[in-house]
Request: fold
Amino acid sequence: MASGRRASVTVLLCSLCCATFAVILRTIDNDVWVNEFDSIELTCFIESISTNSPRIEWKKIKNGVPSYVYFQNKISGDLENRALLIEPANLLIPNVSRSDSAMYRCEVAAFDDLKPFDEILIRLAVRVKPVVPQCSVPSSVTAGHFTELRCKESQGYPLPHYQWFRDNEELPEDPKTSIRFYNSSYVMNAKTGSLKFRAVRKEDAGEYHCQARNDAGYENCAPQLMEVYDSDIGMLVLKIAAGVMSFILLTAGLRLARKHICCSRRDRRENDYRVPQCDSGKDCVSADEGHFQHKPSFVV
Reply:
C-alpha cells in the first residue's frame, strides 16, 4: 500500500517537473489558406517554458530546401521588410504573395529546461484569383453540326472551375435539369472549360461568355456572338464561295491564255522579217525571182 502511494507521488512529481521544465508549443492551425495580398498570422504559442530568453527561429521550406525567415532576432530572406514577429513567437505577413506558399517551421530552444526544444510545422497555401480567361467561340455554325466552345485560365490557384453563360444567363451543367435548356445537346466540363454541342440548334445562337472561379474570386471573358444557320443557307454559302473561286480561276486562266497568244504572234512577226541566208553550194533565189529575163541561149 505504501509502495503504491510512493509510486503515485513520484509520477505526480515527474509530471509537474515536465510541465514546468519543458518547452511546449501549440498552433491554431497547421494548414493555413489565405488570399493573395491579404494578411496572415502564423501562430506559434509557447504554452510552457522556464528559460527567460529562449531562442526563437522561423524557417521557410520550399521544394524541400529550408531558408531562414526569422534568425538572430530579425527577419531575413525573401520576407525581409515584409514580415513581423509578434511576441512571443507568432509570424505576421501583412501582404501575402503567391511566392509565400510553402511550409513554415517555428523552432524554440530553451537550454534551462529539461526538455529544451520544440517545433511546429505549418503549411501556408496562398489562393490566387483567376485572370481573365481566354475564350474561343465560333462566329457561325450550321444547325445540326458538332461545335465546341473553349475557355482557359492559367494563373488561378487552386485551379478554377469554369461556367458558361448565354446572353448573360447561366447554363446549367446538365441541360436536362432545366426546362429552358432541356432540348439542348451540349455537354459542359467545369474542370476543362469545354462546352460541346453534339448537334447545335438555332435556339443555341446568342452571345456566350465564360467565367473562371475559385475561392479567391472570379473573372469573365468578353461576350462573343455565335450565329446558327440552317443547313440550306450553309449549302448556299458554300456554293457561292465555290462559284467565286471558279470565277477567279477562270479569269486567271483566260489571262494566261491571252498572254500566251500575244507572245506567239509577236514571235511569228519577227520571223517574217528575217532575210534568208545562203548556204555554200546551194542556189539562192534572188530578189528578181519570178521576172522573165533573156538569156544568151534564147533562140528567136
